[in-house]
Specification:
By secondary structure, the protein is α+β, with helices and mostly antiparallel strands. About 30% of the residues lie in helices and about 30% in strands. It has six helices and ten strands; from the N terminus they run αβββααβαβαββββαβ. Helix 1 crosses helix 5 (about 150-165).
Length: about 230
């Protein structure tokens, strides 16, 4: 039971914190960095089940690698995404660049505080932010005694039930060169229906995850590539 509850915290934290992309109360002229040409519409075909590990895959051309030993993980983000470094005081600057105000600004500030305690990585797709919901990615590690893929999958299913997630699909895959799981799901929120893609892996006394969250129908084409860049440090 203790193992199950601790592992549930991993998936619940990673998935729930990604909901902080809600940007309903934007200022009129947010000072967002330039965004690239809008990507093509997401393919209607089933998501690729290729291994999610990137230990030997390298960083795609033009992408930026973020994270380091202090985070316990590293990931890469495409051009047009903005990293918010939660460990350097950049969170407040990020809030201003995203153009938030009122309740949404305070909600995101509180979430940043939670992520900062876990030394998590966080980035948003700036063009999506202009449309009202910031497609986002977070990566983090949480202490846990869970060491098997079976236990991780069971805990994830339980955690998704607690979140009220729907359309949950969990498959086995390779994450950062280790046996792990890939989870897709949807969540109904005040911001509308959100979809998430997440990879998780148990690594000794910790479990690490990377979660991409977007508004329904707006999951970026390169979401799987982003998940494939997760590295454990």
């Amino acid at each position: 039971m203790v193992r199950r509850l601790i592992a549930c915290t991993v998936v619940a934290t990673a998935a729930a914190l990604s909901l902080t992309g809600c940007l309903g109360d934007k200022k009129e002229d947010p000072a967002l960095p330039p965004a690239p040409t809008p990507p093509s519409a997401p393919s209607a075909s089933a998501p690729s089940q290729t291994p999610a590990g990137s230990a030997n895959g390298g960083t795609p051309a033009g992408w930026k690698t973020v994270g380091g030993p202090e985070n316990g993980v590293r990931m890469s983000i495409p051009a047009g995404w903005m990293e918010i470094d939660l460990t350097s005081g950049e969170a407040e600057q990020g809030l201003k660049r995203l153009g938030l105000q009122g309740a949404n600004e305070e909600m995101l500030r509180q979430s940043f505080a939670s992520l900062e305690k876990q030394k998590a990585l966080y980035a948003v797709e700036t063009e999506a932010a202009q449309r009202g919901y910031a497609t986002n990615v977070n990566a983090l590690c949480t202490p846990t005694p869970v060491s098997s893929v079976d236990a991780l999958e069971a805990a994830t299913r339980s955690g998704m039930v607690q979140l009220g997630a729907q359309d949950v699909e969990i498959t086995r895959t390779t994450v950062a060169g280790r046996p792990g799981i890939r989870t897709t799901y949807s969540l109904r929120t005040a911001a509308g229906t959100l979809t998430g893609r997440q990879v998780q892996v148990a690594d000794g006394s910790r479990a690490c995850s990377l979660t991409v969250t977007a508004k329904d129908g707006e999951m970026p084409d390169d979401a799987d590539q982003i998940m494939g860049t997760l590295e454990l440090l």
